Amino acid sequence: MLASSPHTAMLALEIAETITDIPAASWDALAGSHPLLSHAFLDGLHRTGCATRASGWAPRYLLLRRGGELVGAMPLYLKDHSYGEYVFDWAWADAYERIGRRYYPKLLGAIPFSPVSGARLLVRDGAHRAPLIRAALALAHQSGVSSLHILFPDDAEAAQLEQAGLLIRHGVQFHWHNAGYANFDELLVGMNQDKRKKIRQERRKVSEAGVFFRRLTGAQIREADWNFFCRCYAATYRAHLSTPYLNRAFFHHLGETMTDQVLLVIAERDGKPIASALNLFGAGVLYGRYWGATQFIPGLHFETCYYQAIEFCIERGIERFEGGAQGEHKLARGFAPVRTQSAHWLAEPQFASAIERYLQRESSGIEAYIDELSERQPFKQT
After folding, report:
1. Mean pLDDT per segment of 10 residues, for the chain of length 382 residues?
2. Is 190 exposed, middle or buried (0-12, 13-18, 19+ CB in 10 A)?
């Protein structure tokens, strides 16, 4: 039982090993419109075996209740590896074990397999964030884990996590921002001539290759479309000599439960599909997730993943498009560098001090990198 202030009086803390038994309406009331934080998305990852104890993602969801009502929650996982996180700590793990300590298991507050920003401390009232942070730290201490990591929190959460003693690490992503464009051409008008010319050339090459696109949402997405996308998704991982994190059952789950929040782009040539890209969207944000192709055509990747998604955002009045992790090539295509953050607590004091010094140096490099990227943005200077 937590009772540290009038705001948190009579709060009860629970640790849940499944989200399935939590009413979807109660969870989604805290998660808001973020599709990847929704009950349907997270439950799908667990039900289909993508994020479970067997795959190294053992749920330890923190739940805060007042009088039985869910007023706070945190997606938290006990992990025995660092796959699927997009904030890389493999070097930390190696260093930790070289000093004779076990790095795994660790605790992770994140959306599995998803480098997307947003709330990680889901609360009805901002005053409930502090009890969640204390509970996560207490669980880390009690569990005897090496560390606690909270990935891609929003700005307010990051500030509060830092106040609670966690170390803040910065990264860079590339996001597209909608300035109220009426159409794609209006976006191009604001760009430098060489960048505008390059984008038009890329789009023209794809069009002249006889490629047409369908942007599908809701009931427009049929079983055949999902089947083809899964082929593309698997092909992308094979090309990188890697194993897919998600399976057909999970994408079937998306099609059954979240289709109205899915944008599926299908590229066709000679009447046959040749490429596809999967995006999820909520109020004001489109999240680019996965893509793949069965043929190589110059510019096909940029058109399928970026330009079609940007046109969708313009049509729908969506304010921001997060195109996924990393990718300087996005800069020339209208995306801006954005600072991301993660928060870290490490049990070993000397190791934590070393990491803190490392992060100070890394943050200085990140700031310089963002400044350099900002000078290379494709838009006309005003």
Report:
1. 52 94 96 97 97 96 95 97 96 94 97 96 95 97 97 97 98 96 96 95 97 97 96 93 94 96 98 98 95 96 97 98 89 94 96 96 94 89 64
2. middle
Where does 92-242 show beta strands of DSSP type E? 106-109, 122-123, 147-151, 167-177, 211-216
Task: Dig out the tokens for 33 from the structure.
Answer: 């419109």
Contact 108, 85 (CB under 8 A): yes
As a whole number of angstroms, the distance between CA 362 and CA 368 comes to: 10
Structure tokens at 224: 């055949």
Question: 131, 11 in Cβ contact below 8 A?
Answer: yes
> Which residue in this structure is represented by tokens 């289909």?
48
Q: How far apart are CA 320 and CA 285, in angstroms?
A: 5
Domains of the chain listed by start with CATH number: 11-173+338-375 (3.40.630.30), 179-318 (3.40.630.30)
Q: Which of these, 211, 251, 210, lies nearest to 231 by C-alpha position?
A: 251
Residue 25 CB contacts under 8 Å (≥ 6 apart), including other chains: none
| Contact present, 11 and 128 (Cβ < 8 Å) | yes
